[in-house]
Amino acid sequence: MSGTFLFDGQPVPFEDGQTILQAARAAGHYVPHLCWHPDFPAHGSCKLCIVKVAGRHVSSCAMPAKDGMEVESNTPEINGERRALLQMLFVEGNHFCPSCEKSGNCQLQALAYELEMLTPRFNHFFPDRPVDASHPDVLLDFNRCIFCELCVRASRDVDGKNVFALTERGIHKHLAVNAESGRLADTDFSAGDRAASICPVGVILTKRVGFASPIGARKYDAQPIRVVAMQEDE
Amino acid sequence: MSDDGKLVADVIARHGHEPSRLLQVLVELQEALGWLPPGVLTQVAGGLGLSRAHVEGVAGFYSFLHARPVGRYRVLFSDNVTDRMLGAPALMEALCGKLWVERGKVSEDGLVSVDTTSCTGMCDQGPALLVNGRPLTRLNHARVNQIAELIRRQEPLAAWPAELFHVDDNIRRRDALLGSSQRPGEALKAAVMRGREGWLEEMRAANLRGRGGAGFTTAVKWMACRDAPGAGKVVVCNADEGEPGTFKDRVLLTSFADLVFEGMTLAAWATGAQRGFLYLRGEYRYLLEPLRAVLARRRNAGLLGRGILGETGFDFDIDIHLGAGAYVCGEETALLESLEGRRGTPRIRPPFPVTHGYKGRPTVVNNVETLAKTTLIAINGGAAFAATGTAQSTGTKLLSISGDCAYPGIYEYPFGVTIERVLEDCGASDVQAVQVGGASGVTLAGYEFHRRIAFEDVPTAGAFMVFDSSRDMFAVARNFVHFFAHESCGFCTPCRVGTSLLQGYMDKLASGHGAMMDLADIEWIDRLLKNASHCGLGSSAPNPVLDTLLKFRPAYERRLQHLDFAPAFDLDAALATARRMTGRDDPGAHLDTTQEATP
Questions:
Q1: Under the GO molecular function aspect, what terms does this record hold (chain B) (predicted)?
Q2: Would you state the pLDDT for residue A109?
């Protein structure tokens, strides 16, 4: 089934099997997202891509497009809710952008600029999340994890290694690595893995290249995320 | 190989090294070892061909699985609001005092740990607790003393007095289902006589709707599954009765298990499924052996297995899977994930389970009560079933009644019964509010007691908690908010963070630091939970707060310290450590809080 739907009033064509986000993106419309990645099936956890269809909120990354549907995305209401979801992601972790080596290359930070998030609004949780610097080439800083599971999926589906998984539940949920010691050094992870370069935030960092490119001259310093996201495969 | 190593190898072998049996393997090992040491998880991963991280992730998801040492006696007090109203917090404090143990910590000698757990489904005979997974009801100080003594003497659980573990059915009102005198196999014979098509026709005529709360038409679900392409169809009975205040499934599984299994077999007859699963919540682990005995009896009677009732091609059998303390697994796609041995995270829908369910096969997931009700339709026909209840809500409904009433227990009413009538029957007076449908349901105030239990008016999965005028409805809502924060699976942002934020705001109000701005923030978070959550847990989590804010707002407002803003922390209290260190307590060492408060 193919057809056309209205995205913020603009007609958008779609092919059978395409989701709202995929079809909108192909037609040049940016929908904010964090856990979605063009190379992987929809995950639907970050909820930044929520849109309104016939009065109901749906995840545009997971909802198949249907002929004649009317989709609201870039509206004050939806963007307000997206901003609040970003605020939630900021306060549940420890995100100190000025001292983070991912600053300027971070999708969470870039989206916060894009959606004009000025304050965290809610109380910070300040969770205690120790870093794992055991691996010779890669540092894991769990303080910035947003649970998109892209590393879990990339390691499992592309690298065939299953280095990462999530454990515990609710607000205590966190990443675990595939070793009884809990140390990345004791896994078969390598800096050349797909999972090593897929983190949208600053959890998985390659050592010794942190400031090779200075802050101010980085990906999202030059262009906003709504432009970058449409150009490349992220 | 060490003793543990041999045990693990045996358990894995018994489960055929099948990765989808992971949760069942972990539950068994936890029962044998008390906890799941790191080496055991590594061995399980190797034995099932899974990554260790995956096994750690599954073990970490379920409340009743412990990847850290716990006491040899693990005491968990049910923390539903009805248990609290019956004095559970004081009893827990008393037990902790007697055993010299701090709540949530293991005693120094590793003997005992005491903590709370989500509603254990014993609200009609609370306060209740679980000790090493076995339910203990009707707690009072005498019983707490007895338990403390048994634990101190290190008496094995098997030697504890049996009356401690006695669970009553407390059936107070019987109607079509609970009053039924059908014999095992009677309904099945009637349905087989009608033929598969004729049986579905009766189901359609009955217009039976799902008793789990959502109210989807059962016949439509069954037909969709029957018509879905793909072999190896599956029938799942959702006995993960985790909704606080609900215990009807406990009674059905205790005293009417034949009706439940017969209903599953009727679903198999309609859909052509050959495999059935009953997903039993971990809190009802004590029912596992009796349920297995019923299954064995039915197999011997030719009501399960190959060629049921001599009908060639009617092959169906049922396995029981245990949950391990996760409310979210009551959501049908999370339940399927859990059945497949994974973390109980709800799936993306569509596709729906009727086309892509257990291991991708067409699957029917029905509530315990729904399945039991189908036996009545098979025996008496769809029209007779549809003759009771209301036009849109046919048949009867089991209510689990608890809280401030003289006769808590199970009541079966035709749909359409008013709240007033139910309150009168259960001996409730001076009622301020009723929570219908559990924590995720609706809070009804006095002016709504003329409303009716029905899908078109007040829908419910069965919980009916009564609160008299002495109760603080803010405290009730706060209890439910804590429940949802504890039970959120953490998959999606709004629910993972939103339920915890909401808990923080409710705690702030409870500690007397609330301000008008907090109420605005609460309403904003409620809206995000409702709109953006991935599944029903998140979208219904704000219900108790939304309802009580609307109907019992003074319970919130009298907790507000300021009309605009108050910080979440007490500045003067924060200086306590500095005062202690300097040995000062003069006025100069205190903040003048009265001056602070005046603009």
A1: 4 iron, 4 sulfur cluster binding; FMN binding; metal ion binding; NADH dehydrogenase (ubiquinone) activity
A2: 98
List of chain B residues whose C-beta atoms are within 8 Å of the C-beta of residue A180: 38-39, 41-42, 52
Structure tokens at B364: 């029917």
Is B57 within 8 Å of A165 when comparing Cβ atoms?
yes
**Residue spans per domain, chain A:** 3-74, 84-210+220-231
- Which residue in chain A is spatially nearest to B538 when comparing CA positions? A170
On chain A, the residues whose CB falls within 8 A of the CB of B348 are 42, 44, 59, 62
Is the CB of B489 inside 8 Å of chain A's CB atoms? yes
What's the CA gap between B578 and B583, in Å, rounded? 8
| Cα–Cα dist A136/B447, whole Å | 68
Using a CB–CB cutoff of 8 Å, tell me whether B341 touches chain A. Answer: no
Crossing angle of helices B218-227 and B186-206, rounded to 10°: 100
Distance CA(B376)–CA(B370), nearest Å, equals 11
Kindly report, residue by residue over B199-210, the tens digit of the pLDDT. Answer: 999 999 999 999
Answer yes or no: CATH 3.30.70.20 is held by domain A84-210+220-231: yes
Q: Where are the domains of chain B?
A: 3-61, 73-167, 173-386, 396-471, 474-562
The pLDDT score that the predictor gives to residue A96 is 95
Q: Which amino acid is at B366?
A: N
At B598, the pLDDT band (50, 70, 90 cuts) reads very low
Mutation for B interface: A140, A145, A162, A169, most B CBs within 10 A: A169
The domain B73-167 having CATH identifier 3.40.50.150: the answer here is no
Q: How near does any CA of chain B get to the CA of A206, in Å?
A: 22
Q: Has residue B361 got a pLDDT over 90?
A: yes
B346 touches chain A (CB under 8 A): no
B258 band by pLDDT with thresholds 50, 70 and 90: very high
Which residue from A84, A171, A179 is facing B490, i.e. has the nearest CB? Answer: A171
Q: In which element (H, E) is residue B113 found? A: strand B112-117
A149 touches chain B (CB under 8 A): no
Q: How far apart are CA B363 and CA B332, in angstroms?
A: 10
CA of B76 vs chain A CAs: smallest distance (Å): 19
Q: Which CATH architecture has domain B173-386?
A: 3-Layer(aba) Sandwich (3.40)
Are A62 and B493 an interchain contact pair (Cβ–Cβ within 8 Å)? no
B497 touches chain A (CB under 8 A): yes
pLDDT interval class at B599 (50, 70, 90): very low
The helix, strand and coil proportions of chain B, stated in percent and rounded to the nearest 5, come to: 50, 15, 35
Look at residues B85, B493, B96, B77 and name the one whose alpha carbon lies nearest to residue A35.
B493
Q: What are the residues facing B426 on neighbouring strands?
A: none
pLDDT at B593 over 60: no
**Is the per-residue pLDDT at B128 higher than 90?**
yes
B300 to chain A, minimum CA–CA distance in Å?
Answer: 42
B461 and B425 Cβ atoms separated by less than 8 Å: no
| B400-414 pLDDT tens trace | 999 999 999 999 999
Chain A contacts in chain B segment 58-117 (CB below 8 A): 59-63
Supply the pLDDT for residue B205.
Answer: 97
Query: Which CATH number is correct for B396-471, 3.40.50.280, 3.30.70.20, 3.10.20.600, 3.30.43.10?
Result: 3.10.20.600
CATH topology for B474-562?
de novo design (two linked rop proteins) (1.20.1440)
Instruction: Give ∠ CA B36-B41-B46 in degrees, rounded to 5.
Output: 155
Interface residue B532 vs chain A (CB under 8 A) = yes
For B58, name the nearest residue in chain A, comparing CA atoms only.
A167
Fold of A3-74: Ubiquitin-like (UB roll) (3.10.20)
Residue of B511, B485, B489, B512 whose CA lies nearest to B499? B485
Does B556 score more than 80 pLDDT? yes
